[in-house]
Amino acid sequence: MALLKSTKILTSVGAQAPVLAVLQLRASSWWTEVQMGPPDPILGVTEAFKRDTNPKKMNLGVGAYRDDQGKPYVLSCVRKAEAQIAAKKLDKEYLPIGGLADFSKACAQLALGPDNEVLKSGRSITVQTISGTGSLRVGGNFVVCHFHIFCFSFEFSRFHNVSRDVYLPKPSWGNHTPIFRDAGMQLKAYSYYDPKTCGFDFKGALDDISKRNLLVFFDMAYQGFASGDTDRDAWAVRYFIEQGHNVLLSQSFAKNMGLYGERVGGFTVVCKDAEEAKRVESQLKILIRPIYSNPPMNGARIASTILTTPELYKEWLVEVKGMADRIIKMREMLVSNLKKEGSTQNWQHVERLIKEFSIYMTKDGRISVAGVTSANVGYLAHAIHAVTK
Amino acid sequence: MSIFGEVPQAAPVAVFKLTADFREDQNPSKVNLGVGAYRTDEGQPWVLPVVRKVEKMIADDHSLNHEYLPILGLPEFRSSASKIALGEDSPAITENRVGAVQCLGGTGALKIGAEFLRRWYNGTDNTKTPVYVSAPTWENHNAVFSNAGFEDIRPYKYWDAGKRGLDLEGFLGDLESAPDHSIFVLHACAHNPTGTDPTQDQWKQIADVMKRKSLFAFFDSAYQGFASGNLDKDAWAVRYFVSQGFELFCAQSFSKNFGLYNERVGNLTVVAEDQDNLNRVLSQMEKIVRITWSNPPSQGARLVAITLNTPELFAEWKDNVKTMADRVLLMRAQLKEKLKALGTPGTWEHITEQIGMFSFTGLNPKQVEYMVKEKHIYLMASGRINMCGLTTKNIDYVAESIHEAVTTVQ
């Protein structure tokens, strides 16, 4: 340790020659050995985009909805809910650790359907979380603490804890891996995307998921946003539960209610019965308390108001369908514009798109279609064709 | 056979259970002296007038939206919040070696600081680095640090139950005997739960030992402005340490001094030796934030930023804070007077000597049980009371009940 300390002092001297006078007063920094962290692969894209001065630049990086003028969109039902809430002049007292009860209930109902047997029997617990990320993180922590499945491993000639393994689809959201890794899990992958068809590799996925007795963890960040229909988008979750899977579920209201920065989400555990749900709830609180004590009110209150006020709920369904429809339309326009350009390709030329055309996306070639507008879709098609022909 | 069949029922968090029990109690004389939130003289929560004003400004400004904040938070919140802690004219700020991370309340700020220290403080694995918390301390300190991976969390002597004051000798002794480079969690002002702060002179002695032994200062500042009514006075210790050349963290909460409890407004202020070190530290904190909550909630931070950066609103806020602090000081003075008038055995000077929301009454667990069960006055088993729970209407009942507890229960 002493040797390390003097090395730190030497490094500091080298780096700060002009400020020697100050150095004499202070010992060297604690942080000399701290490496510069790389920019976030997704959010870093927006930073690069902001620095670019090209008037034709496009940000197809972060997953936030944009209207056809390329502007952020605050839902009308959100504005109405906000006005209703403001008029009530509520206090700002701490929420319980598990969050706003009205919100958690409505959140679960949205995902599972209000008549779901799971909700009627009380055999699930939903806690309010810091949007989708916070939900996944709490879920990862919960599994590591409380999920223990041992299988006999011939390779190791003993019972082997397999419950630290988490299988993510290939590819998956970039933040899944570091979240689960930091929670203490071993990352594994199952086939998902087939580059030959640009579609779902059903056979590959089934081959990789050839085990029995798996714990299913759903990440539902786009309910309503995908097809425009909240029930349709929740079909898989509901089907698995019907088939007897007691699933884990993360929900986010960042996209479908445009509440990104308010951090609105939920984490649900479907249990065997109500008694088990109570035990699980108590443990989730123990996990949450040392991270942030209790969640923020504002967004949850807005979401809850929308979900539980019939006119606002109806309006929300229309607006979320509106957003989904615009995305679907942009997909169609992009394809037809590419055809017009004469393109017949798949494409992996991210670097050139960024450098030559100021079109920003993540390195894996993911574009946020929400960043496409009727005004820029022609430019996008032209650029994609230019780098792939 | 359920996969969760073995999951045990966890014990409820004591302070929240206390409030839950209070709510269920039907007795008309009940008093809640438990959880740390401000109450008016009518026993009601108080949304600061300046907060209502700024909320309306935000609601009426349709150019604002709900887009994601940067990972480290709202820039104008972070910088103005750090200025509150360190002083606007802080040389460290002028020297560009102060940065901050917007976090989910004070808890979130402690969490991010703890996670960073575990990864980067003294080598890249600090799981065995000792972390010292005061005896007693806020009950969540332990959990925050152990949850962040620290395996060796130790108490440092702080509260002298006998003299009902600071055990300075014990404190300094534990500093001396701590391994070099240990981490110390210090309460910036209004110590929770004892309400007992070191004097300026005592802080100087503490800083001397910490400097000499390269101990890391991690300040927890949850009550700035709330303690004495004066922001600068309540920040003296943090600023002194900065002036002595410490690199330190200060976890700030705006839950109490802005009354924004449920919006989770916190700030982790980082003071580093220079800008280069600061930038690398912030870049690593960013990675930790990303896998914890991605980016922080915008409503509360926006509100605080607007208030701190608008002169008239800033003045109004300071006034609101003083209103709260003054009511607490009044209740302290009155409680002490009433206990003295009743002739309650023991000395009660500590009630006015202690500072901030809490008072460590000195009631033992049996006496506390008596207060809760027989008198329907809810306080923590440690004897901690929240002065904000006292009002001109209930203070006589509380004083009489304390008198009964002390004289009839041993």
Q: Please identify the oligomeric state.
A: heterodimer
Tell me the number of structural domains of chain A.
Answer: 2
Structural class of chain B: alpha/beta
Strand line-up of the largest beta sheet of chain B: 2-10-9-8-7-3-4
Poorly predicted runs of chain B: none
What is the level-2 CATH architecture name of the largest domain in chain B? Answer: 3-Layer(aba) Sandwich
Helix content of chain B: 40-55%
Tell me the β content of chain B: 5-15%
Instruction: State the strand order across the main sheet of chain A.
Output: 2-11-10-9
Taking the alpha carbons of the first and last residues of chain B, their distance comes to 50 Å
The CATH topology of the largest domain in chain A comes to Aspartate Aminotransferase, domain 2
Using the alpha-carbon principal axes, give the shape of chain A. globular
Number of helices of chain A: 16
Tally of strands of chain A: 12
Subunit structure (chain A): Homodimer.
GO biological process, one term (chain A): L-aspartate catabolic process
Catalytic activity (chain A): L-aspartate + 2-oxoglutarate = oxaloacetate + L-glutamate
Protein name (chain A): Aspartate aminotransferase
List keywords for this structure.
heterodimer, A: 389 residues, alpha/beta, Aspartate Aminotransferase, domain 1, Aspartate Aminotransferase, domain 2, two-stranded parallel ribbon, globular, disordered N terminus, B: 410 residues, seven-stranded mixed beta sheet, 16 helices, 13 strands, 45% helix, 13% strand, cytoplasm (chain B), transferase (chain B), PyrdxlP-dep_Trfase_small (chain B), PyrdxlP-dep_Trfase (chain B), aminotransferase (chain B)
How does this structure look, described?
The complex is a heterodimer of chains A (389) and B (410). Chain A is of the alpha/beta class and 389 residues long. Chain A folds into two domains: 60-72 and 324-387, Alpha-Beta Complex (Aspartate Aminotransferase, domain 1), CATH 3.90.1150; 91-308, Type I PLP-dependent aspartate aminotransferase-like (Major domain) (Aspartate Aminotransferase, domain 2), CATH 3.40.640.10. Chain A has 16 helices and twelve strands. Chain B has 410 residues and is an alpha/beta fold. Chain B has two domains: 14-46 and 325-408, Aspartate Aminotransferase, domain 1 (Alpha-Beta Complex), CATH 3.90.1150; 75-309, Aspartate Aminotransferase, domain 2 (3-Layer(aba) Sandwich), CATH 3.40.640. Helices cover 45% and strands 13% of the residues of chain B. Chain B has helices at residues 14-24, 49-60, 75-86, 91-94, 105-120, 140-147, 168-177, 200-212, 231-234, 236-243, 275-290, 298-309, 311-342, 350-353, 365-373, 395-408, and strands at residues 31-32, 98-104, 131-135, 153-157, 159-160, 165-166, 183-187, 216-221, 248-253, 265-271, 358-360, 377-378, 384-386. In chain B, the strands form four sheets. A seven-stranded mixed β-sheet of chain B has the order 2-10-9-8-7-3-4, sandwiched between helices. Chain B has a two-stranded parallel ribbon with strand order 1-12. Chain B is globular. The model of chain B has no long low-confidence stretch (mean pLDDT 95). At the A-B interface, α1, α4, α7, α8 and α12 of A face α2, α5, α6, α11 and α12 of B.
